[in-house]
Amino acid sequence: MKGDTGIVMRNRNWFWGLMFIALAAVLVLKGLGYTDIPLFNIIVSLIFLSIILKSIPRLEWFGIFFSLAFLYLIFAKQVQAGFGVPIIQWYYVLGSAMLISIGFSTLFKRRKRKFKFVYTGNYDKDEDDYDDVIIENTGETHYDTNFSDEKRISISVSMHDDIRYLYSKNLEQVNLECTMGNLKVYFDQTVPSPSGVHVHVECKMGNVILYIPSEWRVVDQLSSSFGSVQNHQRKNSPSADAPKIYLEGRASFGEISIKYI
Prior knowledge:
30% of the residues lie in helices and 29% in strands. The protein is α/β, with parallel strands linked by helices. It has 2 domains: 13-107; 135-260, no CATH class.
C-alpha cells in the first residue's frame, strides 16, 4: 500500500480469490440440483469458513470456536440427519463456544508477533518485536507508566480496568493486549520517532480506547472479528508533515475506539 499508509501489508488476494471460486462452484452445483442447501446458508458458511482459516494462523480462538458454533447452528438439521445427534439449543452452543474460547486463550496464549514495516521513503526498518519492554499491571485502575526516552512499550490487561499515560521522547512501537477488560491509553505526552510510532492492538472481549493528539496523522489498519472499530471524527485535518501513528490489530468480540484530544 502506498501514500499515507506507508506500510506494505501481506497480500491476501489469493485467499479471497479462492473463496469466490469456491462460491462459483457451489452455485454451479446448486444450479445442477446436486444440493438442496439454501443459497443464503452456503454464502454465510463460506464467510465463517474464511474467518476460521484466517484465525487459525493467528490463534484467534474466539474467531475459530464461534465460527464453528455458528456453522453447527446453520447445519444442525443436516448433522442430526447424518449422524443421529440431537439438536442442541443455540444458547448452549454459543455459551460453550465462549467458555472454550476463554479456556484456550488462557492455556495457549499467543506468542509475541513480529512485524515488518517497509516505508516508501528513505528510511527502512528491519524486523523487530515487542519483547524489549513488558509492562503488566495486575493492580487497580489508574496505573501510570512513565518511560522516558524508551522506544518500545508493551501493555497487557486481563480482566480488569486500566488507564495508561505514556511518556516518551522517541516512541517507535507500542503493543497493547486487552482480554476481558477495559484499557485507556493516552499518547499526548509522547513524541513519535521520525519514522512514526507503530501501535499493535489485540482486544478480546474488552474495550480499548486510544487518545491521540488531534494534530497527528493516523494510519488506521485496524480490523475486527465479531467486534467493532470506531475512528471518531476530528475538527481539523493534520498537516502533511505531522507526526504519524500507524495502528494495526484486531478487535475480537470487543471494541477499539480512536479519540482525538
